[in-house]
Hints:
- By secondary structure, the chain is α/β, with parallel strands linked by helices.
- It has a single domain, classed as Alpha-Beta Barrel (TIM Barrel).
- 32% of the residues lie in helices and 10% in strands.
- The strands form 4 sheets. Strands 3, 4, 5, 8, 9 and 10 form a 6-stranded parallel sheet that branches. A two-stranded antiparallel sheet has the order 1-2.
- α1 packs across α13, α4 runs parallel beside α11 and α7 packs across α8.
- The longest helix is centred in the middle third of the chain and has 19 residues.
- The structure holds zinc ion.
- The site of zinc ion has 7 residues, from β3.
Amino acid sequence: MQSKFFIYAAIALLISSASAAPKSSTASAADAPSSSVASVTSAAPATTTPTSGSFTFKNTYPSAVGPLPVDPEWLKLVNFTQVPGAPYKLQAGVGPVNPTPGQNTYCSWTFTQCIRPDDITFCPTKGDWGLTYDDGPSQFSPKLYDFLDTLNQKVTLYLIGSNVIQYPDLVQRAFKAGHHIAIHTWTHSYLTTLSNEQIIAEFKWTERAIKEVIGVSPRYVRPPYGDVDDRVRNIAHQLGFVVNIWNKDTLDWSLAESKTFQAAWIDNNVTAWIAEAPNATTGSISLEHDIYSPTVDVAIKILPILKNTFNVVPVPVCLKDQTPYKEAVTYSLSGNGPAPAAASSGSSGNATATGGSPGPVSVAAASAGSAVPSASVNSTTKPSAASTSFDTKTMVMGVAAVMLSLAVVGF
Length: 411
Ligand SMILES: [Zn+2]
């Protein structure tokens, strides 16, 4: 079994080094301008006033498919002369491709897992475990939220903006429960393949929707697939955001996207992480998803196991960051989240906490330099999850890898 997995993993890595296809990429040729300063400044009207749930939106929002309209006011927030001219790396129907194989001038995490000192990739304190769930809210989120409630467990939720307007009641529930709410873009596209303006729109539309629903603006953003380079980082920072990746990937997404993936491999990963814990020098941040039923089920299965070994907390808690929102809302480091006063604004859409600039990034821990943190370098001697630490590595790659691996092992 393991030998077959090794072949799978090796081939998957080989393929992933060349390309990575999106789960639901919406990047189109229209998103592939030059890498220079903003040229698209028009703001096409947002098209939809969401009506889902009991929450009544005042704003209108775009569809889940880009390119997105851009509010000209957002463009004023970014000094485009400071944005690195990293070349776009879009291969239609595939995703990012490295225009300079063998080189990584712009510190792309996708191609080499390169990080910068202000990237958040792990919890600094040994024994801490930053628990994150991406891609929600979804129809399956309540099951996860219910379970978290039973454990009084708070987590970080990286929300897709177009899902926020579908499930505003769930966002309010999560915030009121004390979970840390963060941004995972609007269309779940590969950000390094988008124009500067579209990157801004991905972040700001999601921020706007979350602000309307819970009254606060998240400071933490997670690029889908971990697809970040210096251009994306610079734009995120100028908009007042900090970038959070991860260093432990459960590969839970494979349960839904690969018919050959076996749930036991996730168990093996968890077992390996626990075995490695005594020798770890830092804590971890893990990646899971609440967008699929199987991933919610596995999340519920492994959380008690993780809690037996690790101090499982939302990411700001392990970073001792009391300002994960742009507004003056103090986040409790007890793991119970913020006093959710702002969430009680209901359908008013107005924050009760206003003003304030993004606080300093209290992420001294993420000062691992440009090297990959030790905790993210996973052994290749076992089916360790993070050997392919991409957010949702896609059916295309997975199916191709499996087919090749089956051919190699003689299936
Ligand atoms: Zn995602």
